Amino acid sequence: MIPALFLDRDGVINVDTGYAHRAEHIRFVDGIFQLCRVFQASGFALVVITNQAGVARGYYSEDDVRALHAWMSAQFARRGVTLTGAYYCPHHPEGTLADLAIACDCRKPQPGMILRAQRELDLDLSASVLIGDRESDIQAGINAGIPINLKMESAEGQSASRAAAVLPGLAAAVHHARHLGILPKSATA
Ligand SMILES: [Mg+2]
Ligand SMILES: [Zn+2]
Predict the structure, then answer these.
(1) Are 121 and 45 in contact (CB under 8 A)?
(2) pLDDT tens, position by position, 46-99
């Protein structure tokens, strides 16, 4: 088993512009590649977990999501980062596509995507880290038993959070992980 860095997508990997589903919608967040290189160098798998209610709402298809994730994987690979997995939840209870308009067990804050990744990729959740920008991300990590859930400051504001820390950016997440001893102090990439 290896530890994983679980990454929410919209608002952590790419700037959250609302229902992004094509490459031209993607602007990568400052520091995302560096963050991934540092965790990768310390033996972490890198796993994307993203709620994509736009599928249930009929805004775009699961094929669109998969194509975008394949494109993203290639963008990461060009920068020396291997994305180990990318999981999405296409559901939403108020969706317009009947078979996806359900209360599923994968839409965060439910832990379903994390638990599925754990089984499929043989991950050690007790040594894993999650980074999100919404409280539902943090709660999903807690529900899955991940001990360190970090929250990026976001449009959600600074209301009370169950995150281990609320941080101003991804560089701060690297510093915080070093401070906690998750990453070696000397890790560079
Ligand atoms: Mg997000
Ligand atoms: Zn779901």
Answers:
(1) yes
(2) 999 999 999 999 999 999 999 999 999 999 999 999 999 999 999 999 999 999
Cis peptide leading into residue 111 (ω within 30°): no
The encoded tokens of residue 8 equal 């929410």
Which residues are found with C-beta within 5 Å of the ion, ligand 1? 8, 10-11, 133
Domains and CATH numbers, the chain: 4-180 (3.40.50.1000)
Q: Is residue 137 annotated as a catalytic residue, yes or no?
A: no
What is the number of the ligand closest to the CA of 109? 2
How far apart are the CA of 31 and the centre of ligand 2, in A? 29
Q: How far is the CA of 158 from the centre of ligand 2 (A)?
A: 27
Phi, psi angle pair for 63, to nearest 5°: -60, -40
User: How many Cα neighbours within 13 Å face the side chain of 70?
Assistant: 6
Catalytic-residue membership of 99:
no
- From 188, 154, 159, 147, select the one nearest 171 (Cα to Cα): 188
Q: By the 8 A CB rule, do 82 and 74 touch?
A: no
CA of 105 to the centre of ligand 2 (A): 6
Which ligand has an atom closest to residue 48 CA? 1
User: Distance between CA atoms of 130 and 186, rounded to whole angstroms?
Assistant: 21
146-165 pLDDT per residue, tens = 999 999 987 676 678 899 99
